[in-house]
């Protein structure tokens, strides 16, 4: 009897897995387990999964093991912000998206995973502050004046020290930031490095984002790079929430005439071609750079610069809310034996 056999398989599990087992079912050679992993960090979850698979793999009537892990008590969702290349405003969009979401009443944390140029501490005016650690050695994010706590790769380095995270080190650094003590944050906005590398891989494998936001300028070249970033998320089965076009249309501060140094509408057209949503357009404006450099995110202000960020945040929030039902409290990790 399959039900009896499921019961037998349970007795084979290591004690730690038994303590966290919510269900185990064997059907058509596929063993599906649900484990409660609340409080475990990424590494501990990985170990648990490997231990479970090692045991069940040895059984001749088990062809495949699927481990589903229920999320922490606070079901926290990750929004990954990516771009094909640097300098397109990915960090600016990440910071202001987080601030705009917080203004809407969402509980948001910001992870600066851009190993090449972590800039969130400057953008959110909490530069120079160091995160402390809890007794469980979890980092405590650094608060910012804008209601968005931040953890950055820069926080893991000594002041003035160049960061040269490579390979597994970069992945582990990211894990430390995401597995931190985020309290009641329901959303984590993660500012990824540009392109496709180790940090992105760790992100997809260990902490699957609920969705991704892609930032591009309207230039053809930037768009081609953005297309590559999109395929990375597509391949990892991470839904693309949509594309943001940044630095679109320059309003001359003297005469007000709007010109399009990088063209306009390119990202919108590209998003449409690829079947992804367009989340909004942010103009190229001197004040955006000046305020950002001064640690005053435009999204936190009451000027017209806040509007495009508020619109983008609203679309992202709507997307998340629509997914909420379907979106997993449970994240699936399946593997063939
Ligand atoms: P990335 O994270 O993609 O490397 P950043 O967000 O650091 O890009 O932006 C690069 C530079 O461009 C920064 O100096 C930033 O202030 C500026 N910038 C970004 N978006 C805008 C904009 N819409 N208008 C004016 N300056 C911008």
Radius of gyration: 22 Å
CATH class of the largest domain: Alpha Beta
CATH H-level homologous superfamily name of the largest domain: P-loop containing nucleotide triphosphate hydrolases
The set of bound ligands, ions and cofactors reads:
adenosine-5'-diphosphate
Written description of the protein model:
The chain has 337 residues and is of the alpha/beta class. It folds into 2 domains: 2-70, GMP Synthetase, Chain A, domain 3, CATH 3.30.300.130; 77-329, Rossmann fold (3-Layer(aba) Sandwich). Helices cover 36% and strands 23% of the residues. It contains 11 helices and 14 strands. The protein has helices at residues 2-12, 15-20, 42-57, 90-103, 120-123, 167-178, 198-206, 220-235, 266-273, 286-293, 306-324, and strands at 21-27, 30-36, 64-70, 77-83, 108-112, 132-133, 139-140, 150-152, 187-191, 211-216, 240-251, 258-259, 278-284, 330-336. The strands form 3 sheets. Strands 4, 5, 8, 9, 10, 11, 12 and 13 form an 8-stranded mixed β-sheet that branches. Strands 1-2-3-14 form a 4-stranded mixed β-sheet. Strands 6-7 form a two-stranded antiparallel ribbon. Strand 2 (30-36), helix 3 and strand 3 (64-70) form a beta-alpha-beta unit. Helix 4 crosses helix 11 (306-324) and helix 6 (167-178) crosses helix 7. It is globular, with a radius of gyration of 22 Å. It starts with a helix and ends with a strand. Mean pLDDT is 86; it is low at 325-337. Adenosine-5'-diphosphate binds at residues 83, 86-92, 119, 246-247, 282, 284-285, 288-289, 292.
């Amino acid at each position: 009897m399959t039900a009896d056999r499921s019961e037998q398989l349970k007795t084979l599990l290591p004690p730690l897995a038994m303590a966290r087992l919510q269900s185990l079912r064997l059907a058509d050679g596929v063993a599906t387990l649900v484990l409660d992993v609340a409080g475990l960090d990424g590494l501990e979850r990985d170990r648990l999964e490997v231990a479970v698979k090692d045991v069940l793999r040895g059984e001749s009537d088990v062809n495949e093991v699927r481990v589903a892990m229920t999320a922490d008590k606070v079901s926290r969702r990750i929004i990954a912000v990516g771009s094909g290349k640097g300098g397109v405003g990915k960090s600016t969009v990440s910071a202001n998206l987080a601030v705009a979401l917080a203004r809407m009443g969402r509980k948001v944390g910001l992870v600066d995973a851009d190993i090449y140029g972590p800039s969130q501490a400057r953008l959110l005016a909490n530069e120079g502050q160091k995160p402390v650690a809890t007794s469980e050695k979890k980092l405590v994010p650094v608060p910012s004046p804008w209601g968005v706590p931040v953890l950055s790769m820069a926080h893991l380095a000594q002041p003035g020290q160049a960061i040269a995270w490579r390979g597994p080190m970069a992945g582990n650094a990211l894990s430390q930031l995401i597995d931190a003590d985020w309290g009641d944050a329901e959303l984590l906005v993660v500012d990824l490095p540009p392109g496709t590398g180790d940090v992105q891989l760790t992100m997809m494998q260990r902490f699957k984002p609920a969705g991704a936001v892609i930032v591009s300028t309207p230039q053809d070249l930037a768009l081609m790079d953005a297309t590559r970033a999109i395929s990375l998320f597509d391949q990892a089965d991470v839904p693309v929430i949509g594309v943001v076009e940044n630095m679109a249309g320059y309003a001359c501060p003297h005469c007000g005439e709007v010109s399009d140094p990088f063209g306009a509408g390119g990202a919108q057209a590209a998003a449409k071609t690829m079947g992804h949503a367009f989340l909004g357009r942010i103009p190229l404006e001197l004040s955006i750079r000046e305020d950002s450099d001064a640690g005053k995110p435009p999204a936190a202000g009451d000027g017209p610069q806040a509007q495009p960020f508020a619109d983008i945040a609203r679309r992202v929030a709507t997307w998340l809310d629509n997914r909420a039902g379907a979106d997993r409290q449970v994240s699936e990790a399946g593997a063939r034996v």
